[in-house]
Protein backbone atom coordinates (compact mmCIF):
# COMPACT_ATOMS: atom_id res chain seq x y z
CA UNK A 1 0.00 0.00 0.00
CA UNK A 2 1.40 3.40 -0.93
CA UNK A 3 2.36 5.70 1.90
CA UNK A 4 0.16 8.78 2.28
CA UNK A 5 1.08 10.50 5.50
CA UNK A 6 -0.02 14.10 5.02
CA UNK A 7 0.93 14.96 8.61
CA UNK A 8 4.54 13.85 8.10
CA UNK A 9 5.12 16.27 5.22
CA UNK A 10 8.51 17.70 6.20
CA UNK A 11 11.88 15.97 6.71
CA UNK A 12 11.72 16.62 10.46
CA UNK A 13 8.24 15.14 10.77
CA UNK A 14 9.19 12.14 8.63
CA UNK A 15 12.08 11.60 11.02
CA UNK A 16 9.68 11.63 13.97
CA UNK A 17 7.35 9.21 12.21
CA UNK A 18 10.16 6.80 11.31
CA UNK A 19 11.66 6.86 14.81
CA UNK A 20 8.28 6.29 16.49
CA UNK A 21 7.48 3.53 14.00
CA UNK A 22 10.77 1.80 14.79
CA UNK A 23 9.98 1.99 18.51
CA UNK A 24 6.43 0.68 18.03
CA UNK A 25 7.58 -2.17 15.78
CA UNK A 26 9.31 -3.73 18.79
CA UNK A 27 5.83 -4.42 20.23
CA UNK A 28 4.00 -6.66 17.81
CA UNK A 29 0.43 -7.92 17.54
CA UNK A 30 1.18 -10.87 19.81
CA UNK A 31 2.45 -8.55 22.57
CA UNK A 32 -0.71 -6.44 22.42
CA UNK A 33 -3.09 -9.38 22.04
CA UNK A 34 -1.61 -10.86 25.21
CA UNK A 35 -1.92 -7.56 27.09
CA UNK A 36 -5.52 -7.35 25.93
CA UNK A 37 -6.24 -10.94 26.97
CA UNK A 38 -4.68 -10.50 30.41
CA UNK A 39 -6.05 -6.96 30.94
CA UNK A 40 -2.48 -5.95 31.71
CA UNK A 41 -1.10 -2.42 31.40
CA UNK A 42 1.63 -2.21 28.70
CA UNK A 43 4.38 -1.04 31.07
CA UNK A 44 7.18 -2.09 28.70
CA UNK A 45 5.74 -0.05 25.84
CA UNK A 46 4.98 3.01 28.00
CA UNK A 47 8.52 2.85 29.38
CA UNK A 48 10.05 2.65 25.91
CA UNK A 49 8.10 5.75 24.86
CA UNK A 50 9.30 7.59 27.99
CA UNK A 51 12.93 6.47 27.65
CA UNK A 52 12.89 7.59 24.02
CA UNK A 53 12.06 11.09 25.31
CA UNK A 54 8.74 11.15 23.42
CA UNK A 55 6.40 12.06 26.27
CA UNK A 56 7.67 15.62 26.28
CA UNK A 57 7.31 16.20 22.54
CA UNK A 58 4.95 19.17 22.99
CA UNK A 59 6.08 20.20 26.48
CA UNK A 60 8.24 23.25 27.27
CA UNK A 61 11.99 22.76 26.86
CA UNK A 62 12.80 24.24 30.30
CA UNK A 63 11.03 21.33 32.00
CA UNK A 64 12.62 18.59 29.89
CA UNK A 65 10.30 18.64 26.89
CA UNK A 66 11.08 19.16 23.20
CA UNK A 67 8.89 22.25 22.77
CA UNK A 68 7.41 21.10 19.47
CA UNK A 69 3.91 21.81 18.19
CA UNK A 70 0.67 19.91 18.07
CA UNK A 71 1.48 18.80 14.52
CA UNK A 72 4.60 16.96 15.68
CA UNK A 73 2.65 15.43 18.57
CA UNK A 74 -0.03 14.39 16.07
CA UNK A 75 2.56 12.74 13.81
CA UNK A 76 3.77 10.77 16.80
CA UNK A 77 0.28 9.78 18.03
CA UNK A 78 -0.81 8.79 14.52
CA UNK A 79 2.15 6.47 14.34
CA UNK A 80 1.38 4.99 17.75
CA UNK A 81 -2.23 4.48 16.62
CA UNK A 82 -0.95 2.74 13.52
CA UNK A 83 1.02 0.30 15.65
CA UNK A 84 -0.17 -3.14 16.73
CA UNK A 85 -1.26 -1.56 20.01
CA UNK A 86 -4.02 0.51 18.37
CA UNK A 87 -6.01 2.59 20.89
CA UNK A 88 -4.49 0.85 23.92
CA UNK A 89 -1.03 2.00 22.88
CA UNK A 90 -2.28 5.57 22.43
CA UNK A 91 -4.19 5.61 25.71
CA UNK A 92 -1.23 4.28 27.68
CA UNK A 93 0.67 7.52 27.00
CA UNK A 94 -1.97 10.01 25.82
CA UNK A 95 -2.49 11.89 29.09
CA UNK A 96 1.23 12.40 29.69
CA UNK A 97 1.55 13.89 26.20
CA UNK A 98 -1.06 16.61 26.41
CA UNK A 99 -3.34 16.04 29.41
CA UNK A 100 -1.37 18.51 31.51
CA UNK A 101 -1.64 21.32 29.00
CA UNK A 102 -3.72 23.29 31.54
CA UNK A 103 -0.74 23.28 33.91
CA UNK A 104 1.62 24.43 31.16
CA UNK A 105 -0.76 27.26 30.32
CA UNK A 106 -2.31 28.24 33.65
CA UNK A 107 -0.14 26.69 36.37
CA UNK A 108 2.35 28.73 38.42
CA UNK A 109 6.07 28.40 37.79
CA UNK A 110 6.39 26.47 41.04
CA UNK A 111 3.68 24.01 39.89
CA UNK A 112 5.22 23.60 36.46
CA UNK A 113 8.67 22.83 37.85
CA UNK A 114 7.23 20.52 40.49
CA UNK A 115 4.93 18.44 38.24
CA UNK A 116 6.02 18.59 34.62
CA UNK A 117 9.51 16.99 34.72
CA UNK A 118 8.26 13.69 36.17
CA UNK A 119 5.33 13.59 33.72
CA UNK A 120 7.74 14.20 30.86
CA UNK A 121 10.30 11.58 31.95
CA UNK A 122 7.50 9.08 32.58
CA UNK A 123 8.29 8.47 36.26
CA UNK A 124 4.82 9.85 37.10
CA UNK A 125 1.60 8.90 35.37
CA UNK A 126 -1.48 11.13 35.57
CA UNK A 127 -5.15 10.40 34.98
CA UNK A 128 -7.93 12.80 34.11
CA UNK A 129 -11.11 12.97 36.18
CA UNK A 130 -13.82 14.99 34.46
CA UNK A 131 -16.75 12.74 33.50
CA UNK A 132 -19.38 11.95 36.12
CA UNK A 133 -22.18 9.41 36.01
CA UNK A 134 -25.03 11.91 36.42
CA UNK A 135 -23.60 14.69 34.25
CA UNK A 136 -22.22 12.88 31.17
CA UNK A 137 -21.37 15.30 28.41
CA UNK A 138 -23.02 18.13 30.35
CA UNK A 139 -19.77 18.88 32.20
CA UNK A 140 -21.01 22.05 33.87
CA UNK A 141 -23.49 19.89 35.76
CA UNK A 142 -20.89 17.83 37.64
CA UNK A 143 -21.59 17.25 41.32
CA UNK A 144 -18.16 16.44 42.79
CA UNK A 145 -17.45 19.15 45.32
CA UNK A 146 -14.22 20.60 46.60
CA UNK A 147 -14.77 22.70 49.75
CA UNK A 148 -11.99 24.93 51.02
CA UNK A 149 -11.08 24.54 54.69
CA UNK A 150 -7.92 26.40 55.72
CA UNK A 151 -5.01 25.42 53.49
CA UNK A 152 -6.79 22.54 51.81
CA UNK A 153 -9.80 21.46 49.81
CA UNK A 154 -11.92 18.49 50.86
CA UNK A 155 -13.35 16.58 47.93
CA UNK A 156 -16.44 14.40 47.95
CA UNK A 157 -18.14 12.89 44.94
CA UNK A 158 -17.73 10.48 42.10
CA UNK A 159 -16.07 10.24 38.69
CA UNK A 160 -16.56 7.66 36.00
CA UNK A 161 -14.45 6.33 33.14
CA UNK A 162 -11.23 7.79 34.57
CA UNK A 163 -8.66 5.98 32.42
CA UNK A 164 -5.33 4.71 33.82
CA UNK A 165 -6.37 5.47 37.42
CA UNK A 166 -5.11 2.01 38.42
CA UNK A 167 -1.62 3.12 37.33
CA UNK A 168 -1.66 6.83 38.04
CA UNK A 169 0.07 8.63 40.88
CA UNK A 170 -1.65 11.92 40.06
CA UNK A 171 -5.09 13.03 39.02
CA UNK A 172 -6.08 16.19 37.17
CA UNK A 173 -9.50 16.70 38.70
CA UNK A 174 -12.41 18.98 37.86
CA UNK A 175 -14.65 19.75 40.83
CA UNK A 176 -17.24 22.32 41.81
CA UNK A 177 -15.94 24.90 44.30
CA UNK A 178 -19.00 27.20 44.22
CA UNK A 179 -22.54 25.81 44.22
CA UNK A 180 -24.14 26.16 40.79
CA UNK A 181 -27.04 28.22 42.26
CA UNK A 182 -24.55 30.90 43.33
CA UNK A 183 -22.94 31.22 39.89
CA UNK A 184 -23.90 33.53 37.02
CA UNK A 185 -23.38 30.73 34.52
CA UNK A 186 -23.27 26.94 35.08
CA UNK A 187 -19.71 26.88 33.70
CA UNK A 188 -18.53 29.18 36.51
CA UNK A 189 -17.52 27.89 39.93
CA UNK A 190 -15.63 24.83 38.64
CA UNK A 191 -11.97 24.41 39.55
CA UNK A 192 -9.14 22.28 38.26
CA UNK A 193 -6.63 20.55 40.55
CA UNK A 194 -3.59 18.38 40.09
CA UNK A 195 -3.45 16.11 43.14
CA UNK A 196 -1.76 12.98 44.44
CA UNK A 197 -4.19 10.12 43.95
CA UNK A 198 -4.22 9.08 47.57
CA UNK A 199 -5.90 5.65 47.63
CA UNK A 200 -6.89 5.89 51.30
CA UNK A 201 -9.57 8.48 50.44
CA UNK A 202 -10.43 7.34 46.89
CA UNK A 203 -11.92 4.01 45.98
CA UNK A 204 -10.99 2.99 42.44
CA UNK A 205 -13.15 0.34 40.76
CA UNK A 206 -12.29 -0.89 37.29
CA UNK A 207 -15.08 -0.88 34.68
CA UNK A 208 -15.52 -4.03 32.57
CA UNK A 209 -15.66 -2.91 28.96
CA UNK A 210 -15.74 -3.99 25.32
CA UNK A 211 -12.11 -3.43 24.36
CA UNK A 212 -8.87 -1.58 25.08
CA UNK A 213 -8.47 -4.08 27.89
CA UNK A 214 -4.78 -3.27 28.33
CA UNK A 215 -5.68 0.18 29.62
CA UNK A 216 -8.06 0.43 32.55
CA UNK A 217 -11.02 2.79 32.93
CA UNK A 218 -12.53 3.26 36.36
CA UNK A 219 -15.16 4.55 38.70
CA UNK A 220 -13.69 6.78 41.41
CA UNK A 221 -15.37 7.46 44.75
CA UNK A 222 -13.97 10.39 46.74
CA UNK A 223 -14.58 10.31 50.47
CA UNK A 224 -13.15 13.39 52.21
CA UNK A 225 -10.23 13.36 49.79
CA UNK A 226 -7.83 16.16 50.78
CA UNK A 227 -6.06 18.37 48.27
CA UNK A 228 -3.53 20.99 49.47
CA UNK A 229 -4.66 24.44 48.30
CA UNK A 230 -1.44 24.91 46.30
CA UNK A 231 -2.60 22.09 44.00
CA UNK A 232 -5.29 24.37 42.55
CA UNK A 233 -4.43 25.18 38.92
CA UNK A 234 -4.82 28.87 38.10
CA UNK A 235 -7.73 30.70 39.72
CA UNK A 236 -10.53 29.11 41.67
CA UNK A 237 -13.75 28.91 39.64
CA UNK A 238 -12.08 29.09 36.22
CA UNK A 239 -11.48 25.37 35.68
CA UNK A 240 -13.99 25.00 32.88
CA UNK A 241 -12.33 27.65 30.73
CA UNK A 242 -8.93 26.00 31.37
CA UNK A 243 -10.39 22.73 30.15
CA UNK A 244 -11.70 24.40 27.01
CA UNK A 245 -8.16 25.60 26.23
CA UNK A 246 -6.92 22.05 25.93
CA UNK A 247 -9.96 20.75 24.06
CA UNK A 248 -8.82 21.59 20.54
CA UNK A 249 -5.35 20.04 20.77
CA UNK A 250 -6.92 16.99 22.38
CA UNK A 251 -9.39 16.65 19.50
CA UNK A 252 -6.53 16.98 17.01
CA UNK A 253 -4.37 14.36 18.72
CA UNK A 254 -7.32 12.04 19.07
CA UNK A 255 -8.12 12.41 15.37
CA UNK A 256 -4.51 11.59 14.49
CA UNK A 257 -4.58 8.48 16.70
CA UNK A 258 -7.78 7.25 15.09
CA UNK A 259 -6.48 7.81 11.57
CA UNK A 260 -3.43 5.71 12.47
CA UNK A 261 -5.67 2.99 13.90
CA UNK A 262 -7.81 2.99 10.76
CA UNK A 263 -4.75 2.78 8.53
CA UNK A 264 -3.44 -0.26 10.34
CA UNK A 265 -6.79 -2.02 9.94
CA UNK A 266 -6.84 -1.07 6.26
CA UNK A 267 -3.30 -2.37 5.73
CA UNK A 268 -4.28 -5.70 7.31
CA UNK A 269 -7.39 -5.89 5.11
CA UNK A 270 -5.40 -5.15 1.95
CA UNK A 271 -2.78 -7.77 2.83
CA UNK A 272 -5.48 -10.39 3.40
CA UNK A 273 -7.38 -9.41 0.24
CA UNK A 274 -4.16 -9.88 -1.73
CA UNK A 275 -3.46 -13.29 -0.30
CA UNK A 276 -6.80 -15.07 0.27
CA UNK A 277 -7.94 -17.11 -2.74
CA UNK A 278 -11.60 -18.17 -3.11
CA UNK A 279 -13.37 -19.24 -6.35
CA UNK A 280 -9.92 -19.53 -7.91
CA UNK A 281 -8.94 -15.87 -7.51
CA UNK A 282 -7.77 -13.42 -4.88
CA UNK A 283 -10.73 -11.94 -3.01
CA UNK A 284 -9.20 -8.49 -3.60
CA UNK A 285 -10.04 -8.91 -7.28
CA UNK A 286 -13.73 -8.59 -6.39
CA UNK A 287 -15.03 -5.05 -6.51
CA UNK A 288 -17.21 -5.76 -3.46
CA UNK A 289 -13.94 -6.11 -1.55
CA UNK A 290 -11.79 -3.50 -3.25
CA UNK A 291 -14.25 -0.60 -3.53
CA UNK A 292 -14.98 -0.32 0.20
CA UNK A 293 -11.25 -0.48 0.89
CA UNK A 294 -10.58 2.26 -1.64
CA UNK A 295 -13.35 4.27 0.02
CA UNK A 296 -11.65 3.81 3.41
CA UNK A 297 -8.34 4.98 1.95
CA UNK A 298 -10.02 8.14 0.64
CA UNK A 299 -11.88 8.88 3.86
CA UNK A 300 -8.80 8.40 6.04
CA UNK A 301 -6.78 10.67 3.77
CA UNK A 302 -9.47 13.38 3.87
CA UNK A 303 -9.66 13.13 7.67
CA UNK A 304 -5.88 13.42 7.87
CA UNK A 305 -5.87 16.57 5.75
CA UNK A 306 -8.49 18.14 8.04
CA UNK A 307 -6.40 17.11 11.06
CA UNK A 308 -3.29 18.67 9.53
CA UNK A 309 -5.22 21.84 8.74
CA UNK A 310 -6.56 22.08 12.32
CA UNK A 311 -3.09 21.45 13.76
CA UNK A 312 -1.54 24.14 11.55
CA UNK A 313 -4.18 26.63 12.65
CA UNK A 314 -3.61 25.74 16.31
CA UNK A 315 0.18 25.92 16.10
CA UNK A 316 0.01 29.32 14.40
CA UNK A 317 -2.25 30.67 17.15
CA UNK A 318 -5.43 30.85 15.07
CA UNK A 319 -8.85 29.69 16.18
CA UNK A 320 -9.49 26.10 15.13
CA UNK A 321 -12.54 24.90 17.09
CA UNK A 322 -14.60 23.92 14.05
CA UNK A 323 -11.65 22.34 12.25
CA UNK A 324 -10.46 20.37 15.30
CA UNK A 325 -14.00 19.11 15.89
CA UNK A 326 -14.51 18.26 12.23
CA UNK A 327 -11.18 16.41 12.19
CA UNK A 328 -12.21 14.34 15.19
CA UNK A 329 -15.62 13.60 13.64
CA UNK A 330 -14.24 12.63 10.23
CA UNK A 331 -11.45 10.56 11.72
CA UNK A 332 -13.74 8.59 14.04
CA UNK A 333 -16.13 7.78 11.21
CA UNK A 334 -13.38 6.90 8.74
CA UNK A 335 -11.50 4.86 11.34
CA UNK A 336 -14.62 2.97 12.35
CA UNK A 337 -15.46 2.10 8.75
CA UNK A 338 -11.88 0.94 8.11
CA UNK A 339 -12.00 -1.41 11.11
CA UNK A 340 -15.45 -2.67 10.13
CA UNK A 341 -14.25 -3.35 6.57
CA UNK A 342 -11.10 -5.02 7.85
CA UNK A 343 -13.22 -7.50 9.83
CA UNK A 344 -15.53 -8.14 6.88
CA UNK A 345 -12.67 -8.51 4.39
CA UNK A 346 -11.30 -11.30 6.56
CA UNK A 347 -14.66 -13.13 6.40
CA UNK A 348 -15.05 -15.56 9.31
CA UNK A 349 -11.41 -15.06 10.20
CA UNK A 350 -12.19 -11.41 10.94
CA UNK A 351 -13.96 -12.70 14.01
CA UNK A 352 -10.99 -14.78 15.13
CA UNK A 353 -8.57 -13.22 17.63
CA UNK A 354 -5.66 -14.68 15.64
CA UNK A 355 -6.03 -12.06 12.90
CA UNK A 356 -6.18 -9.13 15.34
CA UNK A 357 -8.71 -7.06 13.34
CA UNK A 358 -11.47 -7.92 15.84
CA UNK A 359 -9.29 -6.33 18.55
CA UNK A 360 -8.77 -3.21 16.42
CA UNK A 361 -12.54 -3.07 15.86
CA UNK A 362 -13.32 -3.32 19.58
CA UNK A 363 -10.81 -0.59 20.33
CA UNK A 364 -12.17 1.65 17.60
CA UNK A 365 -15.73 1.67 18.99
CA UNK A 366 -14.61 3.80 21.95
CA UNK A 367 -13.37 6.54 19.64
CA UNK A 368 -16.93 7.24 18.48
CA UNK A 369 -17.96 7.92 22.07
CA UNK A 370 -14.99 9.52 23.78
CA UNK A 371 -13.57 11.98 24.61
CA UNK A 372 -16.57 13.59 22.90
CA UNK A 373 -19.37 11.93 20.98
CA UNK A 374 -19.96 12.53 17.27
CA UNK A 375 -23.41 13.94 18.13
CA UNK A 376 -21.96 16.69 20.33
CA UNK A 377 -19.47 17.59 17.61
CA UNK A 378 -22.30 17.99 15.14
CA UNK A 379 -24.22 20.09 17.70
CA UNK A 380 -21.18 22.35 18.04
CA UNK A 381 -20.66 22.78 14.29
CA UNK A 382 -24.37 23.35 13.68
CA UNK A 383 -24.41 26.10 16.29
CA UNK A 384 -21.03 27.76 15.76
CA UNK A 385 -20.54 27.37 12.01
CA UNK A 386 -24.07 27.22 10.65
CA UNK A 387 -25.68 29.64 13.09
CA UNK A 388 -28.43 27.20 14.06
CA UNK A 389 -30.02 27.38 17.52
CA UNK A 390 -28.05 25.82 20.36
CA UNK A 391 -29.52 22.36 20.98
CA UNK A 392 -27.84 21.26 24.21
C1 LIG B 1 -12.87 4.06 26.84
C2 LIG B 1 -13.24 5.36 27.49
C3 LIG B 1 -12.29 6.09 28.15
C4 LIG B 1 -12.62 7.28 28.80
N1 LIG B 1 -11.67 7.95 29.54
C5 LIG B 1 -12.03 9.04 30.25
C6 LIG B 1 -11.09 9.69 31.12
O1 LIG B 1 -9.92 9.29 31.22
N2 LIG B 1 -11.52 10.75 31.86
C7 LIG B 1 -12.80 11.24 31.76
O2 LIG B 1 -13.11 12.22 32.45
N3 LIG B 1 -13.71 10.64 30.95
C8 LIG B 1 -13.36 9.56 30.20
N4 LIG B 1 -14.28 8.95 29.37
C9 LIG B 1 -15.65 9.45 29.35
C10 LIG B 1 -16.06 10.05 28.04
O3 LIG B 1 -15.45 11.29 27.86
C11 LIG B 1 -17.59 10.10 28.09
O4 LIG B 1 -18.07 8.76 28.01
C12 LIG B 1 -18.14 10.90 26.99
O5 LIG B 1 -17.82 12.24 27.24
C13 LIG B 1 -19.64 10.72 26.86
O6 LIG B 1 -20.29 10.92 28.11
P1 LIG B 1 -21.38 9.87 28.61
O7 LIG B 1 -20.80 8.51 28.44
O8 LIG B 1 -21.85 10.22 29.96
O9 LIG B 1 -22.58 10.04 27.57
P2 LIG B 1 -23.93 10.86 27.79
O10 LIG B 1 -23.64 12.28 28.09
O11 LIG B 1 -24.81 10.10 28.70
O12 LIG B 1 -24.54 10.77 26.31
C14 LIG B 1 -25.14 9.58 25.81
C15 LIG B 1 -25.49 9.74 24.34
O13 LIG B 1 -26.43 10.80 24.18
C16 LIG B 1 -25.96 11.75 23.25
N5 LIG B 1 -26.38 13.09 23.71
C17 LIG B 1 -26.45 13.55 24.99
N6 LIG B 1 -26.89 14.81 24.99
C18 LIG B 1 -27.12 15.17 23.71
C19 LIG B 1 -27.59 16.35 23.06
N7 LIG B 1 -27.96 17.44 23.74
N8 LIG B 1 -27.66 16.34 21.72
C20 LIG B 1 -27.31 15.25 21.01
N9 LIG B 1 -26.88 14.10 21.54
C21 LIG B 1 -26.77 14.05 22.88
C22 LIG B 1 -24.43 11.61 23.28
O14 LIG B 1 -23.85 12.05 22.08
C23 LIG B 1 -24.28 10.11 23.48
O15 LIG B 1 -24.39 9.46 22.24
C24 LIG B 1 -13.96 7.76 28.72
C25 LIG B 1 -14.92 7.03 28.02
C26 LIG B 1 -14.58 5.84 27.41
C27 LIG B 1 -15.64 5.05 26.70
Looking across the biggest beta sheet, what order are the strands in?
1-4-5-8
List low-confidence stretches. Answer: none
Topology as a string of helices (H) and strands (E): HHHHHHHEEEEEEEEHEEHHHH
Rounded radius of gyration (Å): 21 Å
Rounded mean pLDDT is 96
How widely separated are the two ends? 43 Å
Helix count from the secondary structure assignment: 12
Strand content: 5-15%
Share in helix? 40-55%
Q: What is the approximate shape?
A: globular
Descriptors:
binds flavin-adenine dinucleotide; 392 residues; 12 helices; 10 strands; 4-stranded mixed beta sheet; 4-stranded antiparallel beta sheet; alpha+beta
Descriptive report:
By secondary structure, the protein is an alpha+beta fold. The protein contains twelve helices and ten strands. The strands form three sheets. It has a four-stranded mixed β-sheet with strand order 1-4-5-8. Strands 2-3-7-6 form a four-stranded antiparallel β-sheet, with no helix packed on it. Strands 9-10 form a two-stranded antiparallel ribbon. Strand 9 (277-278) and strand 10 (281-282) form a beta hairpin. The radius of gyration is 21 Å and the shape is globular. The N and C termini lie far apart (43 Å). The structure holds flavin-adenine dinucleotide (FAD). Flavin-adenine dinucleotide binds next to strand 1, strand 3, helix 11 and helix 12.
